[in-house]
Design brief:
Distance between the termini: 180 Å
Pfam family, one: EAL
Strand content: 25-35%
InterPro entries: Biofilm_reg_signaling, EAL_dom, EAL_sf, GGDEF_dom, Nucleotide_cyclase, PAC, PAS, PAS-assoc_C
CATH superfamily of the largest domain: EAL domain
CATH class of the largest domain: Alpha Beta
Main location: membrane
Number of strands: 34
Catalytic activity: 3',3'-c-di-GMP + H2O = 5'-phosphoguanylyl(3'->5')guanosine + H(+)
Number of helices: 32
Strand order of the largest sheet: 25-26-28-29-30-31-32-33
CATH topology of the largest domain: TIM Barrel
Bound molecules: ligand C2E
Shape: rod-shaped
Enzyme class: hydrolase
Length: 832
């Protein structure tokens, strides 16, 4: 390039001649130096795009010699696409009169493709006219980045590979080498022996994989997920992305750049997610996921099954879809408030189905927040608990009702009483509790069977129910026991009316399977708050009153009163003490002599039981024998008495004291026991006594209680054991049965002698009893003889055997022995 022609060739003649250009001309020399030495491409083009000048640096590029293209269009120099692009930038610079930057890649003489950052700017005259464009291109537009490229690449977590067309890896970063287990030094490798398995399970060798990457890069596929498997058996998941590399405007890529991202964590998370998704689908509980705006974004299969709604039906909808008027608006407000405040809510709600029906659901709602505490989702989980509710109701019903009659049971009754008492305490209410026990019901059960018994109970319950008021609770406690709780009564009269009505309806005949049955009831009543102010007390007192009604002859009602209660607690405490008495030597036997008034001799003794209570002192047998009978203890006690008596007779015998016979009192229960006769005989044998040394005293009432008194007594008679009828005349005296029974003696009751002589009526009875005994040819003895006058009366009427305080009170065995010795021991012995 010539120095003086440099500007000349760039500027038009006019410009050249002007003063404005001239100073620049003076710089020509400097510029020429720059032109030659600058490591940049500088080109000057006129407005037609012809290259007027090009700096020496152009020689570095793989271009024809400059002489061939200077003065020509850029199209002569570069491929049409590049030439067109550069011409476009120049035109833009000229038109907009501003610099336009662009990047292009040119091939160097060394065959390397290098990138140049370029700027094309117009040369503007003082008339603001663009006369040419100057383009300055700096080699290595990214030169600073290029220097750092290896460092950048090795810092990447992703693996980067440049894959040549033949599958060879021509560039790899550290991450890629680690991921694919390439040697550290490898820059250009044929890949070692590894393979990948793609998501469809297809196995690809290393080379196949790299080629596949190239193939899918050209097909614009975004990525490929593979499992990389090395020889070591270890495998890792990789996500590969590939981009084809094109040179200039070549259509065919000359290489592929692939990035490899290790996605083991992602895969693991994906796997876990798949498990959760599966779980979500398989769970039997319906699940709804709402977004923060409370729009449904996901539902599971159970949801559709339960509600009939498909996912399409509800996705995008809000919770109002499932709302039903069965739930109060307050309920929804309550849920919303709980979600806002606590982040969760759990409870029962009614939910509607697609078909309009509804069901009871157990719902758990949770508010889900993201990592920054911002609301992210809501999750509702619910299940249909209608069946459980139904079962619960059934169970509840069963737990509170009697299965036979359908009446409330004890639990429900007590709940109601409790509730009523609480309310009454506030409102001064009055209630009554009626304990209704059916009389003789056991006999129906025993004779007609339980089936019939059940029918009688059901019918009795039905009748009773008809007598009750709306607010009353009639309950069955079990067996033949019922209770009526009358809530809010006004007077005792009102209660009595109902109780009497109950007695009437219960005692009306029952027609069951063509047979007629009769029962009655005993009703005990306690009154709130007069008698007690809690369930326990009311129940106990009604029970006591009922017991009283029973004792007074059944088929009646009885009101509780405190005296009854005291008697009962006295009885209960004695009962307990009596259990202990036998084992603690608190019981002992006393003996009362029986005298023949003609000779004055002792003809026998009556054994009478005594109880020395540690605190109460001596307890009367009149008090404790009935308790022993009621509790069944009488069998053990009676047996003990028989043993004591037999032992005592044998001891007296050994001492040479003669007691011809000892009378022992026997209760109905003892007689009823099948083993009793055997036990009596066993005691006699054990103490080596003959059977006539013992006399069993039975009261008339005892005989009346026995099913087959005759057979029972016959066994004793056959064994040679004497039998006496005690308290004769006080009970049901029948000549007929006296004839039939094998009785050896009648005992005139003390009560008839008390006013004898004097009371003509009693005198007649005593005479009649003595006459009867004589007529039946059996012995007679009078008890309770306290005075000489009584004894004289008896003597005059030919009763010579007496027992009473006149001759001696019942005394302990030792005292009795002394008594025997004192009273004519020699004659006494003769009597034997
Ligand atoms: N006022 C008065 N009373 C007299 C007189 N002579 C005797 N007595 C009392 O009259 C009762 C006679 O006995 P019981 O009629 O068999 O009546 C007996 C008997 O039924 C029963 N009992 C006593 N011991 C036994 C026993 O071992 N077994 C059974 N099952 N009952 C017994 O207890 C009842 C009462 O016995 P106790 O209190 O011992 O009362 C005895 C006796 O102490 C008298 O002159 N004046």
């Amino acid at each position: 390039m010539r120095g003086d022609g440099w500007f000349h060739s760039v500027c038009s003649k006019d410009d050249y001649m002007t003063e404005r250009v001239e100073p620049l001309y003076k710089l020509d020399d400097v510029l020429q130096r720059i032109w030659r030495a600058a490591p940049v491409l500088i080109s000057i083009k006129n407005v037609q795009g012809e290259i007027l000048a090009a700096s020496d640096h152009f020689d570095q590029l793989e271009l024809p010699p400059r002489s061939q293209w200077l003065g020509k269009s850029i199209k002569e120099l570069f491929a049409p696409a590049i030439a067109q692009r550069i011409a476009g930038y120049d035109q833009q610079a000229l038109a907009q009169q501003r610099p336009i930057s662009f990047i292009e890649e040119w091939k160097t003489k060394q065959g390397k493709h290098e990138t140049y950052r370029a700027v094309s700017f117009p040369l503007i005259t003082s008339e603001e006219k663009a006369v040419c464009t100057i383009a300055v291109s700096r080699h290595g537009a990214h030169s600073s980045s290029n220097d750092e490229l290896p460092a950048v690449l090795s810092a990447l977590v992703e693996g980067v590979l440049k894959i040549e067309l033949d599958g060879a890896v021509s560039l790899s970063n550290t991450a890629a080498r680690e991921l694919l287990q390439l040697p550290e030094t490898s820059q250009q490798n044929w890949l070692p022996d590894w393979h990948v398995v793609d998501e469809e399970g297809k196995r690809l060798s290393a080379i196949e994989f790299l080629q596949a990457l190239q193939a899918f890069a050209t097909r614009d596929e975004t990525h490929k997920v593979v499992r990389f498997c090395a020889d070591s058996n270890a495998s890792k998941w990789l996500m590969a992305q590939a981009q084809p590399l094109y040179r200039d405007n070549e259509k065919k890529p000359y290489a592929t750049v692939a990035s490899l991202v290790p996605i083991d964590q992602l895969k693991k998370a994906e796997h876990e997610l798949a498990i959760y998704a599966d779980l979500l689908e398989r769970t039997s509980e319906a699940i709804i996921v709402y977004n923060a705006e409370r729009r449904i974004i996901k539902v599971n299969r159970a949801f559709s099954k339960l509600t009939g709604y498909s996912a399409d039906d509800v996705v995008g909808a809000g919770p109002e879809v499932f709302r039903t008027p069965i739930n109060s608006p307050e309920r929804y407000q309550q849920i919303d408030a709980a979600l806002t405040v606590d982040g969760c809510w759990q409870g029962e709600v009614e939910r509607s189905r697609r078909d309009g029906s509804s069901f009871t659901a157990w719902l758990t709602c949770n508010r889900i927040e993201d990592g920054h505490g911002e609301l992210s989702h809501f999750i509702s989980i619910f299940s249909d608990i209608s069946e459980i509710k139904h079962q619960q109701r059934t169970l509840d019903y069963l737990a509170h009702h009697d299965s036979l009659t359908g009446l409330p049971n004890r639990n429900l009754l007590f709940d109601r009483i409790d509730h009523a008492i609480n309310v009454a305490t506030r409102k001064n209410g009055i209630h009554a509790l009626l304990f209704i026990d059916l009389d003789h019901f056991k006999e129906i059960n025993d004779s007609a069977g339980h089936g019939t018994g059940d029918k009688v109970l059901i019918e009795a319950a039905r009748r009773m129910q008809l007598c009750t008021r709306k607010q009353d609770t009639l309950a069955r406690l079990g067996g033949d026991e019922f209770m009526l709780f009358m809530e809010g009564v006004t007077s005792k009269e009102e209660v009595s009316v109902v109780a009497n009505r109950l007695l009437n309806v219960i005692s009306a005949p029952y027609q069951i399977e063509h047979k007629e049955f009769f029962i009655s009831a005993s009703i005990g009543i306690s009154y709130f708050p007069e008698d007690g102010n809690d369930v326990e007390a009311l129940l106990t007192y009604a029970d006591i009153a009922m017991y009283q009604a029973k004792s007074s002859g059944r088929n009646r009602l009885s009101w509780y009163n405190r005296r009854l209660s005291e008697e009962l607690s006295e009885r209960v405490s004695l009962e307990r003490a009596l259990h202990r008495a036998l084992g603690h030597d608190e019981l002992f036997v006393v003996y009362q002599p029986q005298i023949d008034v003609l000779s004055g001799q002792i003809i026998g003794a009556e054994a009478l039981l005594r109880w020395q209570h540690p605190e109460r002192g001596l307890v009367s047998p009149a008090l404790f024998i009935p308790i022993a009978e009621k509790t069944g203890l009488i069998n053990a006690i009676g047996d003990w008495v028989l043993d004591q008596v037999c032992r005592q007779i044998a001891e007296w015998d050994q001492q040479g004291l003669n007691v011809p016979l000892v009378a022992v009192n026997v209760s109905a229960q003892q007689l009823g026991s099948e083993q009793f006769a055997d036990r009596v005989l066993a005691h006699l044998i054990h103490h080596q006594l003959s059977s006539e040394r013992l006399e069993l005293e039975l009261t008339e009432s005892v005989l009346m209680c026995l099913d087959d008194a005759n057979a029972c007594m016959r066994r004793f008679a056959d064994a040679g054991i004497r039998l006496a009828i005690d308290d004769f005349g006080t009970g049901f005296s029948s000549l007929a049965y006296l004839r039939a029974l094998p009785v050896q003696r009648l005992k005139i009751d003390r009560s008839f002698l008390m006013e004898v002589p004097g009371n003509r009526n009693d005198e007649s009875i005593v005479r009649a009893v003595i006459g009867l005994a004589h007529n039946l040819n059996i012995d007679v003895i009078a008890e309770g003889v306290e005075t000489e006058l009584q004894q004289q009366f008896l003597h005059q009427n030919h009763c010579y055997a007496v027992q009473g305080y006149l001759h001696g009170k019942p005394i302990k065995a030792n005292d009795f022995a002394a008594y025997l010795r004192r009273t004519s021991p020699s004659e006494n012995r003769l009597l034997r």
